[in-house]
Fold each of these.
Amino acid sequence: MKHFKVPYLLILITLILVSIIFACNSSKDSASDSDAASKVYVAPGKYDEFYTFMSGGFSGQMSVYGLPSGRLLRVIPVFSQDPEKSWGYSEETRPMLNTSHGFIPWDDAHHPELSQTNGETDGRWIFINGNNVPRIARIDLKTFRTVEIIEIPNSSGNHSSPFTTQNTEYVVAGTRFSVPIPNDDISIEEYKEKFKGTITFIKVDKDKGDMKIAFQILMPGFDYDLSHAGKDKSHGWYFFTCYNAEQANSLKEVNASQNDKDFIAAINWKKAEEFIAAGKGKKFPTSYYHNVYDEKKHSATSTEMKEVLVLNPAECPGLVYYLPTPKSPHGCDVDPTGEFIVGGGKLSTVIPVFSFTKMLAAIKAKNFEKEIEGIPVLNYDKVIAGEVENPGLGPLHTEFDSRGNAYTSMFVSSEVVKWSLKNFKVLDRIPVYYSIGHLSIIGGDTKKPNDKYLLALNKITKDRYLPTGPELSQSAQLIDISGEKMKLLLDFPTIGEPHYAQSIAAEKIVKNSVRFFKLEENQHTYKTLTPNDTKVVREGNKVHVYMISIRSHFTPDKIEGIKVGDEVYFHVTNLEQDWDVPHGFAVMGAQTAELLIMPGETITYKWVPLKAGIVPFYCTDFCSALHQEMQGYIRVSAPNSKVAISWNK
Ligand code: RUQ
Ligand code: CUA
């Protein structure tokens, strides 16, 4: 294999150079004529037709935009603390960020994935993966809030995730970084012998959406990169790209690019269920956290889980097959019929398209090239349906329309390429600005794509927007795919790095949107429903303040008897019962973020006063004409003072 080293280094360098040349040569032209403008114009007061959910990448959050306007509607806090919404700061939400590594206030969120019923998005939940500390979060689309986060054990770099099956039976998680399992203090030189990957199947409750790890599959120590579930005829299978079949443990940019082909792993999860039912799963001791937010208690709980069931493919014939795939594949996409599996070979000169039918036939005929750790490797020629030739440089991700066309993002040549699933010929191409990663079509990874728009999610914007110092925004570009030729309609900046986005018809979500929480359903331990129930209770050095907020005052708004070093917990219930009337809460000197309390909700704010004196608190959200008056005072006395607890109602 030695002789490959130099050529591939050269190819890599060439690719980098070409990408720079492409980026610099791209003219600033865009199809943004008045026709394009009218297509994205949503008049003031009117709703957009679609929601799009974008990952925030290293912001750890998810953002919600309207399409076609590109208007930012909301940032949903997921893996990162968010002071605006007190996410990860309030006592109720802190448990959501617990992991086996302790409280982790950040992650790298990549792939939003909408729940599906019958292969169509159903508007119930959206999942997203945390790449750094392996986690999957579930967001409830009734509230646009994160309601569950599950950590993935025996994993590192949860990248090929969460990608769902057609009825949201499962979401999955694959290790991007193989590690020793169980993880232990061994030499990195022992990579080939001791490092393993895992692919985790997380069962999703059909009605409630609750996640539970069903089983893991122990895989050879490659880097599992992206995945998609089969659909229709291929329902029951999952496909995962992987690179670094070389099992290099350093200088991966060179050492993991030696082989001509890496793999797509095809996993038969219905078979896996049979093996689990037959008792083939081994219990591995481990530790991972499962955090759940209860909408009635307005509080999260965090539970440590201690074991996981693991299947070994060598002991489970028919569970996993490898499809040889050119050069470090990235994207792994399945067309709406479930027949074609498209690999995005980053360093490949073609786009390989596999046939599910041929794959089944090759398995039946045992057309195997070799075995890797008990996993049969299928013959490339026997499973390939076709190769898209001259697609451009750096194919990454592919999505589909309903008319038999595929659209692939080309990272290096900064373009979207449209090609036909009938003859694998390129039909059209359009430049994007610049260095596109994912692309996204509405329903483009489901059985029912919508043929209106494609979003290009670009890594680099260079000269597209007003300069903002050294860091420039990343961006989305909206492309009209309704006709034969693609047409650029709109650019808009994004928050963090929008690795991926998924979009859905607004009507699937709007009708279920919660407007406020009903006070009579509030089951928070410290809820307060009337001014008469407000109180301040000392328990040793802990003080609980049962407080209410309603336009335009807090009750109580005068509190005495707090001492330096006390742990003061303000449990604030917002008594409003109307849409869009939150109140805020903040105390001078508290080492936390404000609260933002939705109507009917109770949230808790922790404060440890460090100095004696008078300390004001106030509402941080401009809620009425008398918002500025929505304020109060707390008297803090020395630790040994005799001032008794008192408050006003
Ligand atoms: S990945 S482009 Cu997670 Cu392809 Cu980002
Ligand atoms: Cu309540 Cu401002």
Amino acid sequence: MKYGYFDDRNREYVITQPDTPLPWMNYLGCQAYFGIISNTAGGYSFYRDARLRRISRYRYNQVPFDVGGRYIYLRDDETNEFWSPSWQPTQSDILEYTCRHGMGYTTIGSSYKGIEAHTRYFVPLDENLEIWQLTVTNHRSTRAALKGFASIEFCLWDAQDDATNFQRNFNTGQVEVEDGVIYHKTEYRERRNHFAYFGCSAPSRFDTQREAFLGRYRGWDKPKSVEAGELTNSIAHGWSPIGAHQVSIDLEPNETAQFVFVLGYHENPVEKKFDPPGSQIINKRTVKPVIAKYLSPAGADAAFEKLRQYWETTLGILQVQTPDAHTNRMVNIWNAYQCMATFNMSRSASFYESGIGRGLGFRDSNQDLLGFVHMVPSRARERILDLAATQLPTGGAYHQYQPLTKRGNNDIGGGFNDDPHWLIIGVSAYLKETGDWSILDEPVQYDNEPGSEKPLYEHLQRSFNYTLERLGPHGLPLIGRADWNDCLNLNCFSDTPGQSFQTTTNKDGKVAESVFIAALFVYAGRELAAIAQHRGLEAEAKKYIGETEKQLAVINEHGWDGEWFLRAYDDFGAKIGSNECAEGKVFIESNGFCALAGIGLEDGKALKAMNAMRDHLATPHGIVVQQPAYSKYYLQLGEISSYPPGYKENAGIFCHVNPWVMIGETRLGRGDAAHDYYTRINPSARENISELHRCEPYVYAQMIAGKDAPTFGEAKNSWLTGTAAWNYYAITQWILGIRTSLSGLEIAPVIPKNWPGFTAKRVFRGVTYSITIQRKGPGNSISLTVDGQPIDGNIVPIPTDGRKEVNVVGILT
Ligand code: BGC
Ligand code: NOJ
């Protein structure tokens, strides 16, 4: 069953039924001011950091699931009836409900008794505010006398404190109302120099105290002052400051009116906080022109047009036309868009990440670059330098850092022994995309310590050496707290409820080894060698290759189980992911990453490993993490065995790692298998089973319940997942084979046999490549013609004569 449809022309998903299985959400903002918004207008906003600068309040895991948001109410003064055009929170019997989630905006509307109303929500580029444009049309044959109300509940900035510290927070709330604009200024009197505001294009009455607006013991579904038809002009002193505006809407038959509301965040220089100086009144000199600009419908429309253009250009960097509509839609629109969100949010704020927990992950953010770097390389560069500056002098890394301070997060610390290698992979992706070698010479601190600056290149060297200095009894890399799989905690041995599996270390960790990190080391080592080679550092490149060769030999000797690659050795030196094991005999991560890295291509191991994935782990809904699932808690394995079978890392379908197998299949030349795996988890291809899948059909979820789970096929934790970048990378660079390399754009498609070909447009290093691939035979050998001239090999040279348009034709035989 479907709850809507894709409108690819407008790059929208159109939801036509409000009670979707879960809130289906979208992000507003892509720079510094962000919001999350559900299909019924639930959600909240924040500036840069979802924990420390939360602008509006949201209660997670609420009943019903999604309450608290950007709610608009309409009221008919003749009948005294009121309703929400977004269905929530009043849940009235509206007709023609539609929610259009688009690129950086969401429009929600419906009609009720002849009154049609839509609200378009978006964040203009380069501004710290969001616009709500409400359009109301009277389709009745008689005049309509209506009122409109728009409301938001302010958060007292630190979302964690806001949700817990009531003895203080019920006293601190403060607002000002000036010229019809509501200013939320809690703590502005002391150490904050920022405030929020909520303005309206036609203000009449307002409320700023929640209880005055809602009434005692009432929720957002029936606010007392909306019911009464008149806001009370309340001023909040403590308790819960809100912003609510009232507008009058008098419409002749067929008449339309538009109202604009602006919710925003503003900072003043500390010495200019108050106006007049010495008073306690917010200095509004710099914010007033901004508010005025966007409260005008023309200003709002122009900002929307700019946003549309921005996405047109950004997505225009890669557009493909293949025989598969799901591939096209995800590559051209939604997967790229999701990559922007994961880059911006890491794993901080969604409907499943509360915005108070995680900062930016070192591993996560580096991987996110794979799907983002082509869109805004300058921001990728900045992110790389921020990440590298949190690296420790040992080459190890803090697992996370806080976006506002950009400092490593001490609560979680480091010791996840895969982390450092992702920096090499992130930097390599950046170099391949941009050719900007200067980044390697950027001086970057260690652990944000002034004076510790070393060129970024040295950070990569330390990343590589980190593993060499931490090898275990078999010569494989020690796993530390965990590798990619946060839940394979081999040094944890936790028997105390509530202890964090990620930060508890009860063993000194000199035994447990990871075959996955071994593969990662080989892959990253080769990338680093190629970088060294390109810089003319021959001897160094040789050294890296030498070390990866040694590690390959170790993998062959101690990392192979006969039919597939082992996963790890535990703290007792026992195998994990071996046919000898009672449970957890075969795992996806080590096999996927070995094949992706090309390990075992020559001697048939990769082929066997991929066949093992097909025979033991693949399901119609995707490839599970391992089999058999762990049926009980194993002290020596940690969190992985804490999950019931089929969920999360315990044999769930982790959509993040499925692309490793897809890429592995392309390395074997099996395009049909690669694309088949791609399709199994492609959200668009799963749209028809929305009733089962339950998450949004336009973005990936982290996990789909595996075959051991009673809810097999049900997705969870949508939006913020490494799945976005890896699937984008797998389909664009390995299946379609439009691959960035240090020396240019490589064209190496491994597509299904029955595809006659495809076309693509790729903007790469300032040049637009129009690519046509034609299948003339069933294989993957390609011959390329560039602007009519055949070339050797499959790397399209970067034009040296200033040409900006290049035509590439590739014949597959
Ligand atoms: C989750 C992992 C996550 C980890 C770190 C675990 O509970 O299952 O997916 O990476 O927590 O927060
Ligand atoms: C989610 C984490 O964000 C990611 O870093 C990790 O690799 C996966 N979970 C698997 O545990």
Amino acid sequence: MRIDVFTLFPHSFDWFAEQRHVRNAAAAGLELVALDLRETTPLRAGQVDDTPYGGGAGMVLRVDVVEAALRERYGDDAARVRDTRRVIALAAGGRPFDDALASELAASLLDGRDMTLLCGRYEGFDERVHEQLASDVVSIGRYVLSGGELAAMVVCDAVVRKLPGALGHEESVVEESFSDALGGAPEYPHYTRPVEWRGHRVPEVLLSGNHAEIAAWRRARSAERGTLGPA
Ligand code: ADE
């Protein structure tokens, strides 16, 4: 399984790659590689962007720069790379990222379809990157980041933790917020010691040892949170 991230700041992924669950996934066969778009640019002096046609502020990442990076890495017609891999361009206006898409991407990795993440900077990519080179355009929320790197890490993190062996305890991804097991609702509340803090006690049912009642209580709290909307 391979995740390639194309970025102008490959070192920004060093910290992420060192995280425990990513190292666990690496030990189980995941290869996460960050590649520098500047290293393969066909333009002089490491140029990767240009001014927008029609005018306006900011710079736009060029489609020929992304094409060259994909061709160099995959040795293929860059427009065909998406036939065999998920090629995901990160952009504020893309498809909203959620648990269902994270599960879909994890399943597609496990199925042998590797993943490529394209991180934009400045005003983002030339639209032809989205249309002709990417299989998906994904947004992590309706706000604008300075680049796609944090968004790529969010996507990677949510996907990698669903891979077998990434977390120590497999059941923790099955019954977590927004999962099918909870009908897409947020997770139920958790408590640990002390049993009483400033007069606030842990709900008695959780101390009862009655697993059926605990499961029913958790499902009810989760469903409640799902209908309340965001806290
Ligand atoms: N690039 C800039 N903003 C972004 C966002 N919200 N999601 C994904 N990529 C982005």
